């Protein structure tokens, strides 16, 4: 059982692009026994790499980490339990819009990514470590860690985290809250540039009808505009109310 000398690497990046060492703002290596690795990693994330939102409940000040602490703890603990200790260091990359934890070693044979979104059989790569962590109270129930990560992110109002097998290992992607009507998000929803322009205009102006939209897109036929608007409504990006000729389009969020 590896207890010391194993390294976690944390890197803070200034852009959302894939890792370019010219974009590194700060980095740290974490050493220690397995219990220390968990606590040191979480402490460093909270104190140096992540932002806490300050709020008040009555007279009392409270701080909320930008990613839920319980979800991060679960991901870090799972990484220790499931890591292939013959391979590379565990890595955490903190981007402006996301946090990615990568761990050496893929999923157990026969297990799929979709299985992680529901209660599933526990197949820890390192059973002795898993047993020690369970008895120490660091693992509540085997086979439920990824479900807890999803639940905690949803509870915090964040997008559902992603689990991926990549680069010979396993990654957990945590995402920040996003503006639904940002151009990047609309692209991810499969919209073309014309549809994005329509959605952004209606979001900015609160509502619009077909005639007003013809004014901002004079080179686009009425038939094409209507088809785009209908598709935006079908995708629940816009809300359409009223009869066809008098129809008003509004943002849904």
Automatic annotation (TrEMBL):
InterPro entries: RecG_C_sf, WH_DNA-bd_sf. It comes from the Bacteria. Gene3D superfamilies: 3.30.565.60. This is Uncharacterized protein. It comes from Candidatus Acidulodesulfobacterium ferriphilum. The lineage of its organism: Bacteria, Deltaproteobacteria, Candidatus Acidulodesulfobacterales, Candidatus Acidulodesulfobacterium.
